Amino acid sequence: xxxxxxxxxxxxxxxxxxxxxxxxxxxxxxxxxxxxxxxxxxxxxxxxxxxxxxxxxxxxxxxxxxxxxxxxxxxxxxxxxxxxxxxxxxxxxxxxxxxxxxxxxxxxxxxxxxxxxxxxxxxxxxxxxxxxxxxxxxxxxxxxxxxxxxxxxxxxxxxxxxxxxxxxxxxxxxxxxxxxxxxxxxxxxxxxxxxxxxxxxxxxxxxxxxxxxxxxxxxxxxxxxxxxxxxxxxxxxxxxxxxxxxxxxxxxxxxxxxxxxxxxxxxxxxxxxxxxxxxxxxxxxxxxxxxxxxxxxxxxxxxxxxxxxxxxxxxxxxxxxxxxxxxxxxxxxxxxxxxxxxxxxxxxxxxxxxxxxxxxxxxxxxxxxxxxxxxxxxxxxxxxxxxxxxxxxxxxxxxxxxxxxxxxxxxxxxxxxxxxxxxxxxxxxxxxxxxxxxxxxxxxxxxxxxxxxxxxxxxxxxxxxxxxxxxxxxxxxxxxxxxxxxxxxxxxxxxxx
Length: 497
Hints:
Elements: E1 59-67, E2 70-80, E3 88-96, E4 102-106, H1 114-119, E5 127-131, E6 136-143, E7 148-152, H2 195-210, E8 233-240, E9 256-265, E10 271-273, H3 277-287, E11 295-297, H4 320-323, E12 334-339, E13 345-349, H5 351-360, H6 366-372, H7 378-383, H8 388-414, E14 422-423, H9 424-443, H10 452-459, H11 464-472, E15 477-478, H12 486-495
Antiparallel strand pairs: 1-2, 2-3, 3-4, 5-11, 5-12, 6-7, 6-8, 8-9, 9-10, 12-13, 14-15
């Protein structure tokens, strides 16, 4: 087969193939395997199903999860990646509480190293190459015991959770300047939707677009499209939503689910890809799916020896425009190569996307993210301008905190006001500044005035994790002693350790 070349990635050695510039596709999770339930793991045997063999690995973690009043078991497994020492890839199985029924399975990202994948290639094998899609993997499954649809992710069931955490205001709303932009009716800077709420948003938009009307959808039972979905399968999708930001910017009207696979569980707990065309057509109409056009390689092994491995990693500044241009080097996040003859597959990451993801620095708490870069986040906002307002509010919040510490210092050490209660959250820093900066300057004969700038410099010595603790620690009121005792100073020092 003719090799596909592109200049998007960089120079390639002779005989190599570059898979880039494809029309958008979805990641494939088609694979051949079977497994016994954990209660039967000790047997480590294969099933008799043709082409459906998979050696079971140890359970890494088992967690009880409850959704809609039903108790599930989320079993996390680790499968060794062939060809990479000590490397493992995770996959999950969702069962009922006694592990007698399988509801869903979330496949590993890859099963082999690139080297092993190439070595396992035989003349005549068909290798499919697909682009991955950025988003969160969501699996829909039917629970016949409660007669309801539900969803799961790799580590949870129900979706009543999110990756990001809501950021609570550190101070009363009235303490913030009027130009700080957030909802004054709440005590949070941002509202974080759960994965379940995001999924419901997708179907609300689908009703509006396809049915021409807004439909009140409070839960999955209200979704009209699910009524026709076969219940003997589970459906794995990628969720894209504006409030589930990873690297690419997803506009609200582009929120969507993209079907990756439809699978069924046999009576002997063999999980396999659904082959019924009618079921697949219904699933694609419910969840939506971009055209899947695999690029097949079935000539010489040399054609797949070095795909995407020699990507030239540019160090130029990442811009929002380039990052969100589907034709740029930052797309797609990765490529999946699958040998449809052996069922083995490998993921090859896009180094440009990985560099952007490192800059994104995924943190569940955005306040901590801001603290890690508060001295200079211009490059970050150049790539991700949607955080400009939030970072600005945090800058204001940090200034308020510094002002409180400075006021505590002035009131106690300069104005000698001793009948006012000063929260320990601020006074502990005022005391430390007095003992570690002001008094040493007197002893050295270079008296130093304690100004706002001094307090800012004082806080520059602390790590982001310590600053996060100082900022978010609840206020604890105390009446500072008129005369500081050594034991009190030792307590302050211990507080700052």
